[in-house]
Design a protein that fits this description.
The complex is a heterodimer of chains A (897) and B (234). Chain A has 897 residues and is α/β, with parallel strands linked by helices. Chain A has 27 helices and 25 strands. In chain A, strands 3-2-6-7-1-8 form a 6-stranded parallel β-sheet, sandwiched between helices. A 5-stranded parallel β-sheet of chain A has the order 11-10-9-12-13, sandwiched between helices. Chain B is of the alpha/beta class and 234 residues long. Chain B has 2 domains: 117 residues, Rossmann fold (3-Layer(aba) Sandwich); 102 residues, Winged helix-like DNA-binding domain superfamily/Winged helix DNA-binding domain (Arc Repressor Mutant, subunit A, Orthogonal Bundle). In chain B, strand 3, helix 3 and strand 4 form a beta-alpha-beta unit. The longest helix of chain B is centred in the middle third of the chain and has 15 residues. Chain B is globular. The chains are: A alpha/beta (897), B alpha/beta (234). Chains A and B meet through helix 23, strand 19, helix 24 and helix 26 of A and helix 9 of B.
Amino acid sequence: METKRPDPDELLDRAVTEEERRHQGKLKIFFGAAPGVGKTYAMLEAAQKRRLEGVDIVVGIVETHGRKETDALLKGLDILPHRIHSHRGRGIHEFDIDAALRRAPSLIIIDELAHTNAPESRHKKRWQDVRELLCAGISVYTTVNVQHLESLNDIVRQITGVIVRETLPDSFLNRADEIELIDLPPDDLLQRLKEGKVYIPEQAEKAMEHFFRKGNLIALRELALRRTAEQVDEQMINYRRDAGVRDIWPAAERILVCIGPNPRSIRLIRAARRMAAGLRAEWIAVHVEAPSHIKPSAEDLQTLAEHMRLAESLGAQTVTLTGPKASDEILTYARQRNVSKIIVGKPTHPRWKDKLLGSPLDEIVRGSGDIEIYVITGDSSEPPVKSSARSHPQLIKPREWIWSLGTVAISTALAVLTFPYFEQTDIVMIYLLGIVITSTQTGRLPALAATVLSVAAFDFFFVPPHFTFAVSDIRFLVTFGVMFIVAYIITRLTLKIREQAETSRKRERGTAALYALSRELVRERKKARIIEIAVQHIGEVFRSQIVILVPDEQGELGVSETGVGTFAIDQKELGVARWVFDNRQCAGLGTDTLPGAKALYLPMIASSGVAGVVGVLPVDAEKGFAPEDIHFLESFVNQTAMAIERIILAKEAHDERLKAEAQKVRNTFLSSVSHDLRSPLAVVEGAASTLLEKETSLNRPDRLELLRTIREETDRLERIIHNVLNLTRLESGAINIHKEWQPLEEIIGVVLNRLSERLKEHPLELHIPPDLPLIPFDTLLLEQVLVNLLENVLRHTPTGTPIEITITLKKSAVMIDIADRGPGIPALEEETIFSKFNRSNQTRIGAGIGLTICRAIIEAHGGRIWAENRPGGGAAFKFVIPIEGTPPALIPEKELT
Amino acid sequence: MKESPSTVLLIEDERQMRRFLRVTLQSEKYSVLEAETAADGLSQAATRSPDVVLLDLGLPDMDGLEVIEKLREWSAVPIIVISAREQEGDKIKALDGGADDYLTKPFAAGELLARIRVALRHAAPKLQDHGEAVFIAENLRIDFLKRQVYCGTREIHLTSIEYRLLTVLVKNAGRVMTHRQILKEVWGPPYVEQTHYLRVFMNQLRKKIETDSTRPHFLLNEPGVGYRFNPNLD
């Protein structure tokens, strides 16, 4: 036998689930066989104990049924106020989940887990409330009776004859961290019932006649014990698995159950669940959708979806297969998944159908090989819920009946006209033609009617004795038979082809719509556009109004800015949307959660979280959504979510890149600045230490030389620091350009005076037009530009080479050109020497940020700065400052004094 | 210049700066008083009556402008403010608020001593100013009585604004004057904001009295602050 070892993926899955569970509250279920065994009492006792331990505990809802002992146990416990629903003039007390979430105790007491909530509540069922509480990290103590368990529902009905409508999915019981069985022998329970400790006397009387018969109680007790044992067993297995005990792994059993819209499927599902639980096997519920099948009615689809949901809630994996032959599909799939047991229903249709069309069951059995097949009966006492499911939704379509009757009439007329010349067999052909035409246009019934009518008309008009239905020649009966069978087969085939075409057309339409959406979404780069497109497409395909809500910066769903769509959403609806956003589950119209909402809300789940919520308000609100619609809708929503996520990821990547670039610039800046600062410092340090240490040995000229060096280098340091500070301040916007109208010559004079010492080495030519007007600029900043440019020239040109400064007045700008006859600018570096902290390799060390700040300042003036090599050698640095606005007026001097 | 050693009060919180100033000043035979805080500085200014005050604008205990204001309540002692490069605005406020001159860190010793000399000279009894009828600096000669200006032997014709501008600067020779101060004295209080007037006339004046107006010798620009007439006495 093959034994299954824990594979890494499975272990990882378990780790993930456990991680999730760790943040969740703990669930403890007080489990009983029947009402009155003392579950609530035990629960409250446990609660009191926890209260004494100092646990923050709150009673969410408890039904004491007026039992005194139980009431007494409520003493000292904090009781959450109930929500009161008015239902048909009566106030119904319901558990208030919002109050509980607000209060957020560490433990909450909630009685009757299987309870069905009042209509306007958030969830249909109380266990869904509990699930939400657990997710919010609140631990829960609760009670449930065995008869409420989904998988045991049918057995309980068989035993007690009572149909229990409030059910609890087994999967929820399985997730309980602890189950405490509250057991009471049947005699004791009956005794308590008689004493009026369970129900008030009149009710007790009635109850004893029905539910509380001793036989029932024994059976229920056995069920409860067995179910608990199963749970304990599972815990044991988990424990051993966690403890690394491997050799107890059971054979890999896998069960497959075939289900359909037939109500008997429920029984099959429950049977499969029980078998799977017994064998500790996983199980799969499979439905085969045959493309050739007659289009299933809406009711069938609904029931089928319910069956699938039931199977899921009982822990099955559900799969829908498509194929022409159900038996082949099932067997292929079963082999693929290593299924060891297949459960199928006992056929209920007449035997001749099998003989005629082949029996799927027979084919499965024959083809099963080493897979075991279990054939299980439907419950005979269970009325086939409604055979209306099989009936056709639209019974009478006048057009089709006109087609049907019309073709028969026309065929007959044609036959009458041609009868003198044709044989009777040819007449049959005319009728067959009519039937074929009819079946291409009509449904099944009109086509069948046409067949019958054709045979009848043939008999009436053309088979002797004419104009009676009597048949003189017995051989004609064979003709009728053959004619009928041929016509019937043709009709069926034609209908089948038409339906297949219809199904594939519909599917194709859906796929095409989805494809159109994704194709449009792929092209978009803006979130807002994606939302618009999604609103439009989903709205068109589902004939609904759509609203899409995405979270704002704070991660909150809002309407004002973030809601885009075709219908307005009010506070109540927004609440539903927020719930969907927080809980990542569908809610609203047509679901189990907040079904009172106007619209259906679906979360847009992307890999990194919920991208938003889509609200869908069908035009025909009464109709709601079919389950297949919701599935289809989900694929649209997922497409949108993926597109939005793509945008978000792209933006993140972009931001990341920008950040990296900024970081790079900052690093270059720092290394450049530190280089520029360190080199003069090193000179100063060196010169100063020489002066200190060799004070006596140095001669006077050397001393002076060193002192002068110190002086020059500190000047240089000063300038660098000034540049760095101004650059950072300019870039951070801390410096405001303070433009003043002033003569340009003046500032040039200032700069030449400042650098006069060093300029002595270079012949200087100034070309300044005599009638230069006032120019608007920031004195201090432009001074810095000129100083930096001249510094740069002085640093890079040999002593004795001339420097030219030329000012040219343009139409609405002034150009300053500082030109030298030095080595010029290395090729291709004319532009880059202005970029941040470029120190043109080796040759121009120390240019550092000087030119960068020049560019920043000139650009802040609205001007432009560039460098070029001069014809004849040397470099020219040029900048232009625009002359904008009107210069201030000067009062002519004569008017003064 | 006075023969007896003048007293300089240093109000500066940085020890290294004080050390440098003390050494430099003492080498020039000034007697030096030191104060680390504005409060101490003010009390020393009151008790020791220094001849000139060197005031750092970035004191920890009081705003430099406030110190000037307090000092000016009772004393006309020359104040030279020392400011960092990033305090252009404060510098102008200090000058308009009563300070006599300024130095921007870092500065050379020569610059400091020149400023102190100018300050001391202007603080000397005003009688001298009244008496002086002629001002001579190199080839520039101004006859205040005749309101005539000569460059060498050549007479220079100035408009009345130009003349007033020149005399205001010359009377404060060596000292920086802010745009506001000049505008107020030459054009009158309503024109203190019209900096461009000043700039245009200064340009004209330079063209008339400077040999190379683009590299002025006498009329120096203190960017962002004002102008200084350079008497070239050093």
